[in-house]
């Protein structure tokens, strides 16, 4: 089946630093999605990418959909304490279901 | 516009009992997806339903698990004769269309099997 490799598994950074995480796959996806999950809650959509090569920003977040459709990265600039959480990438085909990475746990030290 | 709603948020069952998890999609959404999340793992696809139809159940265990999305009412994920390994967070998502439309997630139901 389709699998996503998400890295790094965890990050410990100082407030104000920039963060970068990425996902790769052996399969092609039509859509790449980045979610954030807080403890005890469901994933919340941060950014959706629909076109190969697309670069999209949402505030301090920037994500890109790889040219090959097999990878994506998410950058967070000038991190703040509320950025703490688990970030998931997900690839979606036109069959509907999403395949998720195992997440990147972000810890921000004030 | 209310988001995806799931209930109960927490469910405790003893081994052998049945668990019924409910999901009400966002208003206007007719596509529902169920995912399971084990601790410190990502979400794993279970089943995709559109009103009254199961479209893709490739992620569902072959036994004890079933799902439905009736014409009226919420989608139900049913687990019969639960075992400790069924303990997990179960998330429902809904989308407006199928293709590459964005899926919006509910808060999840945390099932604990004693």
Helix/strand layout:
The complex is a heterodimer of chains A (110) and B (114).
Chain A: E1 4-7, E2 10-14, E3 19-25, E4 31-37, E5 44-49, E6 55-58, E7 61-65, E8 71-76, E9 85-92, E10 98-100, E11 104-109
Parallel strand pairs in A: 2-11
Antiparallel strand pairs in A: 1-3, 3-8, 4-5, 4-9, 6-7, 7-8, 9-10, 9-11
Chain B: E1 5-7, E2 10-13, E3 19-24, E4 31-37, E5 43-50, E6 53-56, E7 65-68, E8 75-79, E9 88-95, E10 104-105, E11 109-113
Describe this structure as you would to a colleague.
The complex is a heterodimer of chains A (110) and B (114). Chain A is built from no helices and 11 strands. Chain A is globular, with a radius of gyration of 13 Å. In chain A, strands 2, 4, 5, 9, 10 and 11 form a 6-stranded mixed β-sheet that branches. Chain A has 110 residues and is mostly beta strands. In chain B, 0% of the residues lie in helices and 49% in strands. Chain B has strands at 5-7, 10-13, 19-24, 31-37, 43-50, 53-56, 65-68, 75-79, 88-95, 104-105, 109-113. In chain B, the strands form 2 sheets. In chain B, strands 2, 4, 5, 6, 9, 10 and 11 form a 7-stranded mixed β-sheet that branches. Chain B has a 4-stranded antiparallel β-sheet with strand order 1-3-8-7, with no helix packed on it. The relative contact order of chain B is 0.34. Classes of the chains: A mainly beta (110), B mainly beta (114). Chain A binds chain B through residues 4, 6, 30-31, 33, 35, 40-45, 48, 50, 88, 90, 92, 94-103, and chain B through 4, 6, 31, 33, 35, 40-45, 48, 55-56, 58-59, 91, 93, 95, 98-100, 102-108, 110.
Distance between the termini of chain A: 40 Å
Taking all Cα atoms into account, the compactness measure Rg of chain A is 13 Å
Helix content of chain B: under 10%
The total strand number of chain A stands at 11
Beta percentage of chain B is: over 45%
Please give the number of β-strands of chain B: 11
Mean pLDDT of chain B, nearest integer? 92
Shape of chain B: globular
Structural class of chain A: mainly beta
Radius of gyration of chain B: 13 Å
Determine the strand fraction of chain A and express it as a percent band: over 45%
- Multimer state: heterodimer
Compute the separation of the termini of chain B in Å: 37 Å
Average pLDDT reading of chain A: 92
Shape of chain A: globular
Q: Report the helical percentage of chain A.
A: under 10%
Order of helices and strands of chain B: EEEEEEEEEEE
Taking pLDDT < 50 over at least 5 consecutive residues as the criterion, the unreliable ranges of chain B are none
């Amino acid at each position: 089946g389709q699998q996503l490799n998400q890295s790094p598994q965890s990050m410990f950074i100082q407030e104000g630093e920039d963060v970068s995480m990425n996902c790769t796959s052996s399969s092609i996806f039509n859509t790449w999605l980045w979610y954030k999950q807080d403890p005890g809650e469901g994933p919340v959509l941060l950014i959706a990418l629909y076109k190969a090569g697309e670069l999209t920003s949402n505030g301090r977040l920037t994500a890109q959909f790889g040219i090959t459709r097999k990878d994506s990265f998410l950058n967070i600039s000038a991190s703040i304490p509320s950025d703490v959480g688990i970030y998931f990438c997900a690839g979606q085909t036109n069959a509907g279901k999403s395949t998720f990475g195992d997440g990147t746990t972000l810890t921000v030290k004030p | 516009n209310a988001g995806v709603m799931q209930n109960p948020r927490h469910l405790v069952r003893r081994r052998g009992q049945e668990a019924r998890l409910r999901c009400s999609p966002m208003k206007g959404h007719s596509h529902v997806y169920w995912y399971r999340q084990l601790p410190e793992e990502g979400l794993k696809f279970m089943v995709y339903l559109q009103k009254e139809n199961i479209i893709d159940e490739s992620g569902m265990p072959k036994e004890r698990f079933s799902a439905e999305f009736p014409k009226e009412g919420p989608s139900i994920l049913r687990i019969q004769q639960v075992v400790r390994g069924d303990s997990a967070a179960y998330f429902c998502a809904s989308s407006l269309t199928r293709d590459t439309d964005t899926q919006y997630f509910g808060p999840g139901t945390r099932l604990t099997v004693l």
